[in-house]
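Why should sequence recovery work at all? Because a backbone constrains its sequence more than one might expect. Tight turns favour small or flexible residues, buried strands favour hydrophobic ones, and helices have their own preferences. The token representation captures these environments compactly. In the example below, the structure is given first.
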């Protein structure tokens, strides 16, 4: 779903979120990945980051005050 369409949706038992494009603001990323791991459950978020989006990924790291787990392929 798009960021706008996803707001307000409550889909239980989501275990994984896949981002194929990085949002322009870090708060949207936090909202996206917050769909997984609710109610004390663990969840996994996988984000595909193009070199042109690396600055957006760094903004997310700054917001969450923790590094992302980078894997280069």
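From this structural description, the recovered sequence reads:
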């Amino acid at each position: 779903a798009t960021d706008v369409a996803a707001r307000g949706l409550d889909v239980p038992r989501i275990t994984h979120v896949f981002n194929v494009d990085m949002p322009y603001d870090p708060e949207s990323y936090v909202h996206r990945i917050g769909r997984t791991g609710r109610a004390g459950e663990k969840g996994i978020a996988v984000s595909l980051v193009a070199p042109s989006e690396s600055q957006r990924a760094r903004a997310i790291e700054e917001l969450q005050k923790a590094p992302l787990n980078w894997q280069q392929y």
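A few observations help interpret the result. The mean pLDDT is 83.
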